[in-house]
Amino acid sequence: MGNLCHIHVGTGKGRSRFKWKRKPQDVMDNDGVAIHEGVKTIGVENYCDFSAGSTPDLCICIVTWNMNGQVSYEDIEELVGRDRKFHLLVVGLQEVPRNNISRLLKAALLESHILLGKATMQSLQLYVFGPKNSELFRNELKMDKYAVGGCGGLIRRKKGAVGIRINFKGIRMEFISCHLSGNFEETFPKYFSETRVSHTSNVEERNSQFRHISNSLFSKNWNPYARPAQITIWLGDLNYRLQGINTFPARNLINENLQQLLTSKDQLLQEAERGQIFDGYCEGTLAFKPTYKYDIGSTSYDTSHKGSAISKDARNVAWIFVCHK
User: Fold this and answer.
1) Do the Cβ atoms of 139 and 167 come closer than 8 Å?
2) CB-facing half-sphere around the CA of 276: CA atoms within 13 A
3) Predicted local confidence at residue 58, as pLDDT
4) pLDDT of 71-94, one tens digit each?
5) Closest CA to 213 of 137, 159, 150, 266
């Protein structure tokens, strides 16, 4: 199942308030070398507090899920839950099967929410739902998509990103759901011998894809006078891995609930500190265990021969909050 979390956005006296503004230029040290901020960790609530005196101006529930080509209506019902204490529900999906996911989501949310916008590119999809009266608060809605990589779409593993821009309750937001390249030898294993290529071989490709997506989405009809998004949120399957640790030592730490010790091995955080990706962005605390790769229908990590041959305990980012400072 996918990963879920909530954020509060406040313009008044909400319990939590986050303020974002346009990202400044890189700061230089005394030698003229750019100082990068990397990804900042911020606190994120599991649930929004709607009790008296602490109601947030806007509560967003964000879900990302690599479906691996399989889904049932029961899965969708579990995903959206019954206690829907949020204004907006943002669902980013990767490797979506040929089912009508939009119809399944709308049916599961029929009593409480309506579809405000969707952006799809084959197996890569993004949906934004709001309360039944929420169209009154929607002032702007734009969708875009950007494909990267080669023939992934032929096997329902389209790579790239889809995005939705929305002005809701006067707050300008941009949501980007992406699926960056994994390792070619995992997708087409018959072309590779048992001596596999390291996961690190694809890091720069993912960095490059991130930059292309950032620069290309919503750029076709760019208006220099348009006001930028106040909040930009990325979610998806970014495919960055754990680097510098083998499979079984990583699994031992996870089994002992010491997965926080693995963050120093996180390729995404490493690349952000180098200023290659997400520089100056924010992310909720990584309180969950690495999500890739489980045996289907279980919480056991890959027990196949292939899973033992190479390190599969990837971070496979389940969600990442990113926001311009």
Assistant:
1) yes
2) 15
3) 86
4) 999 999 998 888 888 899 999 999
5) 159
